[in-house]
Amino acid sequence: MSNNQDNLESKLSDAKATASGMLTKNSQKGKNPNTAVEVAKTGSAKDMMLWLLAIAALIGATLVNQYLPGYWQLANDVWVRIGIIVALAVFALICLALTNQGRAFKILLRDAAVELRRVTWPGKDETFQYTWQVIVVIGIVGLFIWLLDNFFNWFVGLFIG
């Protein structure tokens, strides 16, 4: 009886695993990819245009200070140039945020925030203990490297004279 029950339980668990695998495959067909890597790998013509706009804006921001005052009288004021540079940088960031890679970066930041909430941070005593352990190990390694340095200086001194 127990052998039959074990067989039934193993068949039931296999059926559940198969069903859950089929459900996840079917549910992902109709939805957009939800991991950062999947989102970042997708691309389109819109992404290419946004990347080109962002690159052009950043190149323009680097050239504003040197070339714009020669063509536009108002650009002789340093605050106008700073405003134009900031505006071009913000425009480039907005363009990059609208790409699939920008969406992937937002997903990555959201996932990182979730993982940070799961971290168990050490207490004051643990931090103090680990700090002293690190300081002692650094001292031992530093002493070892100092001894090696003195040995090699002495060894090379024998040959150089």
Characterise the protein shown here.
Helix 3 packs antiparallel against helix 4 (78-97). This protein has six helices and no strands. The protein has three domains: 1-31; 36-119, no CATH class; 123-161. It is an all-alpha fold and 161 residues long.
Furnish the topology, listing elements before pairings:
Blueprint: H1 2-30, H2 36-41, H3 45-71, H4 78-97, H5 100-118, H6 124-160
Helix pairs in contact: 3-4
InterPro entries: SecE_bac, SecE_sf, Translocase_SecE/Sec61-g
Keywords: Cell membrane, Membrane, Protein transport, Translocation, Transmembrane, Transmembrane helix, Transport
Transmembrane segments: 50-72, 78-99, 130-148
Query: How many extended strands?
Result: 0
User: How many angstroms separate the termini?
Assistant: 89 Å
User: Structural class, from secondary structure content?
Assistant: mainly alpha
Number of domains: 3
Largest sheet composition: none
What is the 3D shape? flat
Mean pLDDT: 84
